[in-house]
Amino acid sequence: MAANYDALGSQTRGSPYGSGDPYYNESSGYITPARPPKKTVSKWVKFGIPVAVVVIVGAVLGGVLGSRSSKNASANSAAAASAAATSAISAKNGIGRFATATDSQYLVPIYPMTTNTAAFTTPTFVSTTNTNLAWPQDPFQPSNPSPTQVRSDRPRLIAPAYMWDSLPNLIQHDPYLSGWNDTIFSNATQYMALPPVAYFLDGGNGILDPAREIKQRVKAFSYAYRLTNDTKWLDRTYVELQNAAGNLTGGWGPDNSTKWNPVHFLDTAELTAAYAIAYDWLYDAWTLPQRSSIMTTMITYGLNLGVTAYSNGDPGAYGWWNTNTEGNWNCVCNNGLTMGALSILGDDTTGIAAQLLALTVPNALQNCALAPSGDGTWSETANYWYFGTTGHAEMASSLLTATGSTYDLLSVNPAFQLTGQYHMYVSGPGSLFNYGDCGPNKYSTTANSMMFYGQQYDMPQYQLFQRDQFDAAEPWSMFWYNPAVTGAFWDGLALDHFFDNSTDQWASMRSSWTDENALYVAVKAGMLQGHQTHNDLDCGDFVVDALGVRWFGELGSGDYNSIGYFSNDSQISERWMYYRKMTEGQNTILVNQQNQNVAAAPTVRHDTSATVQGSSTVMNVPGDSSAYFVADLSSAYFDVTSFSRGVHLINGRKQVLIQDEINASASIMWRAHTNATVAISSDGFTATLTIGSATTTVQLLNPPSGAAFTTMEPVRFATDPIPPQPDQPNDGVTVLVISLPAGSYTLEVLINPQWPGMSSSSYITPASVPLSQWSLTSPSS
């Protein structure tokens, strides 16, 4: 992705993190005055930058690969299979890490444009028992697993001793493990130079930032100690734990049992997980007094409050998340308590560990595990997928390694195995299709659940996709990654996918999986309630990437501290008074300058040429390759008799047609938000968008009488209800607009990225075709 994306503001930060603030969620609404100023950011919400990543950091995957050879195979067959496996993995390792760099602006992997496909083959987990190439099988295989019957050796959470024993050799023979290992040590060294994480209470997110930063550090320090036995890492871990317990000079938060802020239980859960990792991974290195201190702190500020959260009375209202909460809260909270309980089983004399495990496991099955809908789409938003799946994967992995089973966490919802596919398709060449809220800073939260799911669901493409991502290099990846994976995630992967369960309804369409300059279009319909109050009023919303930039994008989260921001998702919710959440803040049609109807129940239809990418990173799109998505959005509006929106990739996926057919009894406004400099032709029928050296033209075809492009500032109308608190500024954003009075119209908007080397005569002007007659070949020129 070209590094010419328009940047928000000019302030910079003297950050100790070098390459940027770790996993900072770049919504200006999230920044609070008490925090240090953040680094310069792009206006579209995207991932923050991980510590010390200066080259591509592939995803770290793990999982145990047992021998897959038949017990009845002959010695000759076994030898031949072993040789073939070794050859396949050697071909992969000969190329090294597939991505050659990470784009510094968008943090996406950059792949070489090559037709050399020696290792870019079908995604596969190669069967081999070669200890240079694959994990051995876990010797702990209980015949009747129970959550309270744990393995006898340490560690028991995520990375058992047999994996630590095998890891140094695998690092020597796998380019991804080797690179991630280097980055983890580099990050740990940088953390070492920083003071212990300071206490900071954010009204919207509690102490979640400090909690996840502590967890991030504990993982890195513990990892470094186990591979080096250098006590500086052990000592530094203990300092971080003592700090969060309030035992250092100056204290840390309130001096009572609510120190870990259980009213915002995510904070409590993440700190409990951090303590669990330290207790378990460094178990044999701690002195008995240290071990006792860590366990006591974890019980006092974490596990005890977990029992309270599950009690019927729950005087602190800590446990709302354990009832009908199919999203990240349930996953994160149950995971923290589960990891904490598993870590101290056998040492705990209070019985609280066993008590909690009897609560968290069945509750997660009824809530967390149901978060993905039938097509794998996460219940909240594309960014909240990170938080929810991290909690789910950590919990399932901890239970599996500690007790020998995931207790159906991976299987009770068959759609969970599809949520990795959701993540792949919601990721564009420039950013996520980041509709709705984007959440707090990520820190210890990554997409490395893809590594775990890849192994557990036998989906090697998940691991292959994630291993080249910027957030792959962290300890979980070192154990969830299967080094016997081969192939390229894109080989045989369809360019389009439609997620059309009634709750979500969205489309992902692109021209390549490996070209950072590719065309990517995502559009959504779906219901406007039932998303844990993290969605926007955005039926018909879309984003467009091309030429290395995002032309139309999302504004992201508002200020989580704003009054009423999370009040509810009813029609009169105060949430819908904030510009970034209301309909006028989205890339869709606005009718009568009013919000959409929260009771919307759209219907959709779609089709695709089913074009797949081959093994080459050079994707030559056939001229007849196309895809379209049409949504009947009538139910999403008041004052509307009928309204449908269609999005069609045409001309070999080089142009995008957005067509709206609407009959409304009130004013109509077509709106799309862009970072580009916008120049409008004298007749108002063409808008030229420029970002850096890239240009896209937007044409209004067959314009109805009075229709023309204009621009507006991304601010609320003067006649809008005044929100409880002011909106965040959306500096540098322009709204491209078409305004019309009440009536019946067809609006045809053609988006033409100005592709290098493509002559003007190669662009087509499609015929005007009603949405009801759209097909893969119509409209055409």
From TrEMBL:
Protein name (database record): Chondroitin AC/alginate lyase
Domain of life per record: Eukaryota
A molecular function GO annotation: lyase activity
Keywords linked to the UniProt accession: Lyase, Membrane, Transmembrane, Transmembrane helix
Chief place where the protein resides: other
Upper lineage: Eukaryota, Fungi, Dikarya, Basidiomycota, Agaricomycotina
UniProt subcellular location: Cell envelope
Domain Heparinase II/III-like C-terminal: 515-697
